[in-house]
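Give me structure tokens for this 232-residue protein.
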Amino acid sequence: MKPYIICHMMASIDGRIDCDMTERIGGNEYYEALEQLACDSDLSGRITAAMHIALPEPFHTDNPKPANQSSFYKATEAKGYSIVLDSKGKLKWPGNNIDGKPMLVIASEQVAQTYLDTLCRQNISWITTGKEKVDLTQAVKMLNEYFGVERLAIVGGGHINGAFLKAGLLDEVSLVIGAGIDGRKGMTAVFDGIDDKNYPTTLLKLKSMERIGENSAWLRYNVIDTTNPSRP
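Here you go.
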């Protein structure tokens, strides 16, 4: 079992997601839509977390011995978590919650044991899975089994979205399109970072569309499972 997973983003009409830019082309539409999705937990990647959540200085240890095992630590029983994917354990945290939700860090088995010990002392939950990088498929199963996560919103950047897409874990895409054009060369798109030029197009089925805020459009799509075309 895994949670129902929704990628939720706000973008310009050319699909770019730079935060400073999206703040200029919309108001509170992104958060209004996110609240309506009724996800108990949300997940962001290391880059997004470093920009908006983590302390400026990175984690450092004189004892980098890796954990070398798939495991978890549940610091807090909660109805939902703010989850950060930090494969190597690079980020330091100012506290143990984000916007009122307890934190949970997902790392690979290469993370330093001293990093996990630090999280425990801060009363921060964690999961380790995947030998060299995080095994996303196993991680979301563990989120469901051990932490009770039922609906998960992916709210990171283009690369973490691309990783979940490539792993075949997305059930839905929720996209708020703001009234603006970015147009700058090289800016990250809603889904990015898949380096396989032959990667097949992911097909979607329109679920709903509505006007939100003054000038934004909110589109929701179900992801078509090509191994089971009857879903959804």
